[in-house]
Every structure is written in C-alpha cells, then in structure tokens.
Specification:
The structure is a single chain. The protein has 108 residues and is mainly beta. It has one domain: Translation factors (Elongation Factor Tu (Ef-tu), domain 3), CATH 2.40.30. Helix content is 0%, strand content 46%. The chain starts with 8 loop residues before the first strand and ends in a 10-residue tail after the last strand.
C-alpha cells in the first residue's frame, strides 16, 4: 500500500500562458488545482515543484503530485493530464514516473 505522505506521480507541469487562457499569476509548491484523471474523475492534487521555486504562466517544471482521490488503473508514463481551476484549463501535466502503483494502467 502507498504511504499516504508520498507523492503519487512525478510529471512535467506546464502552465498555459495567460493570453491562452492560463493563470494570471505564478504557482508555487503547494498549489492545489484539479487534475482530470478520466472524463468522469477530477481530483485535487498538491503540486511540489522540483526544478524551480515558482512556475509562471507559459513555463514548465518537473513536479511531484499527490492526489486527494487517486483513480486506480488510470495512468501511464507519457500520459498528459489536464490541470484545471474549476472548469478552466490552466495547464497540463505529462507523467514521467508513477510512484503509486495502484494508479498504473494494466494492459488487458
């Protein structure tokens, strides 16, 4: 079983530029947007940035993400997850590692 204090995944988080609908201000570690794990499964997640202290709109950073309600069998390395604030898409997270093996999509 996954330790509840450990991140679920590592991903490259990219915030959309403000003029493309992204956030107005920067994000820093502790930012808690919604992550779309499936069309019917959206969960909050805490992002911890690994390569910079803040991420401005239009920038990227490697990050660890801990989901509030992870969805089993939903992720694979290379999968791109939408990042939202409410219904507004503000960025994407491309999965680079999966720490919580319950999230790893199994081949059928």
């Amino acid at each position: 079983m996954q330790n509840t204090n450990e991140p679920d995944i590592e991903a490259v988080v990219t915030l959309l530029p403000t003029n493309e609908g992204g956030r107005i201000g920067y994000a820093s570690s502790g930012y808690r947007p919604q992550h779309v794990l499936a069309e019917n499964w959206i969960t909050s997640g805490v992002q911890t940035y690994l390569t910079r202290e803040i991420v401005n709109p239009g920038e990227s950073s490697l990050a660890n993400i801990k989901f509030l309600s992870p969805l089993e069998n939903s992720l694979w390395v290379g999968r791109e997850i939408r990042i939202q604030e409410g219904s507004k898409v503000v960025g994407y997270a491309k999965v680079t590692k999966i720490y919580n093996q319950a999230l790893l999509r199994k081949c059928s």
